[in-house]
Amino acid sequence: MSLTVEEILALAGLEEMTVRAGASNLHRSVRWPYVAENEGIGEWVMGGELVFVTGINHPRDEANLLRLVREGDASGIAGLVILTGEPFIRRIPEAVVELAEQYGLPLIEQPYLLKMVIVTHLIGTALVQMAQAKRSRHDILAQLLSGDYPSLATARQRAAHLKLPLDGPRRLVALRLSAVNVLFDNHAADHAERLLQDVRQAVQDFLEAWSRALPEALPVVVQGDLFILLLADHENIRAALANLYRDLQSIIANMALFMGLASKVDACEDYPKALNQARQALDVAENLRPTTGLCDFNELGVLRLLQAIGDRSVIDLFVKQTLGRMIESRRKQPNSLIETLDALLQENGNALKAAQRLSIHRNTLNQRIQRIEQLSGQSLDDPLFRMNASVALLVWRMTEAQRQDRA
């Protein structure tokens, strides 16, 4: 549990501390305060620190302060606080401010007369209190999400005490990082693990800041590899999540991120159902990889039926029986007939539009249609065959996407 830089600056007694750069990243979490005594900080921090620079034990000229900004950014510190005034660091050079702004590193100026013992005491006390409160909030939400709580009345009492707004309609969103294998394919295991944890923390920090700005905000819950948001229901939620997905792209590096959105629930006792729905939608999003990264449970349609089939072999057999003969493994393009069938169904049987979609001549399309009907023993005029083929193609596209990911 931690405080953000913004929450620390809002503490009573720290009003004299001023943000000089990196205001867009004040949502970063602060694990603990660290007073820098050495020439550099790269070897002495692990990420998440709010680093204080006094200039007492080491000269801090412009070159040294620039070095601290670079090393702080590379190490993932939460922010850099520079004490200014006589007799050590008189002012923060403009070049240091500009570099911190370029990196997006929160740079804070603290008057030297504001004693460090007061600052560290206030931050330390707040960290302990905030950690306890956040732990309690997350404990309540985790119990409600799992359905494992002593009594609903007690959970509601605790939520009211901790100012958790549980009442009112909610939409649950489950988010998960995908393509993690990219990190481990391109880096040594220890380095890849550190990169993964850094990205996960950056995503969590961003989500917490994003959700705090929304009405009736609830904390982000981390459950295994899931980030869980409980958002107040509103008509623009899809657009808001699309913007969130776009903003997260700059954080997740070469990995991918997908989201599953549950149906609206009106009471906290329905959170487990909402989480299950969001998980189902998330699984589909990871398989189909929509451009917005989002799949809404309300729009799953037939996929909701397929998700309910516990034995995957039943689905695989259905796909094989419906499409298997059309896969011509000895040809240069073994899936051309399946892709043609898919195009025809996507265009509601309009052969001209299907040919345009596939960028082939109409005569070529007609030849493929004859081949499809010959191999399947079915007619494209048969509505039952079209329905079965549509479902089978939906599963085939999901499977093909997974195969390409593993290739």
Automatic annotation (TrEMBL):
Organism placement in taxonomy: Bacteria, Pseudomonadati, Pseudomonadota, Gammaproteobacteria, Pseudomonadales
Taking every annotated instance into account, which residue ranges of this chain make up the domain PucR C-terminal helix-turn-helix?
337-394
Family statement: Belongs to the CdaR family.
Q: What is the superkingdom listed in this entry's lineage?
A: Bacteria
Q: Which residues form the Purine catabolism PurC-like domain?
A: 7-126
Which protein are we looking at?
Fis family transcriptional regulator
Which chain regions cross the lipid bilayer? none
Every CdaR GGDEF-like domain range? 151-284
